[in-house]
Specification:
The protein is of the alpha+beta class. Among the domains are: 32 residues; 84 residues, Macroglobulin (MG2) domain (Immunoglobulin-like), CATH 2.60.40.1930. 18% of the residues lie in helices and 35% in strands. It has two helices and nine strands. The strands form three sheets. The protein has a four-stranded antiparallel β-sheet, with no helix packed on it. The protein has a three-stranded antiparallel β-sheet with strand order 3-4-7, with no helix packed on it. Strand 8 and strand 9 form a beta hairpin. About 4% of the residues have low confidence.
Amino acid sequence: MIKFYLRSLVVFIILGTTVSLNSYGINFYKFQVSRPDSTRTKSKVTTKITDTRLIKPVDPKAGVKLSFTPFKPSKEKLLAQNKIMSGPKNPLPGDKILANVKVYPNPVSDYLNMTYSISKDSNVTIRIMDVLGNEITTLFSESLSEGEHNNTFSISSKISSGFYFVRVSVGSEIITKRISVL
């Protein structure tokens, strides 16, 4: 029994050394030792991308001729868009009431001109606020009908020179514009 254990031990040792030596590249059949060379640098692999399509595009330098039809909307579509763009007289609940607020001249010296349009009858309030958000003065607070409106305000006696904000509020909508007073 001891002989069996010794023989199996010898077989395991031989197989173990062959497997470990084979990882270093030792070939027992030719008795040559070859180890991997770590001093060699890997050469750069260059690949060239080629176009394998059957119908290749023409070189742009040689002059490309494009054949496409330009967009030409029909008159019916244009007229339909104009009808949509004009919109209904009575605004929908999601539509804006206040639009096109313009303040001029800026910088302001004596008079402040404002233009704005409202899409339905509503209360309009125009206030001047300082940089911190404090109300300096109320220029206008009235109920107006729908349409385009122009107002001129004298501000020379109401505020001193500096930067201010003009706040136009109609219902729940507020538009703020910055002005500079000389």
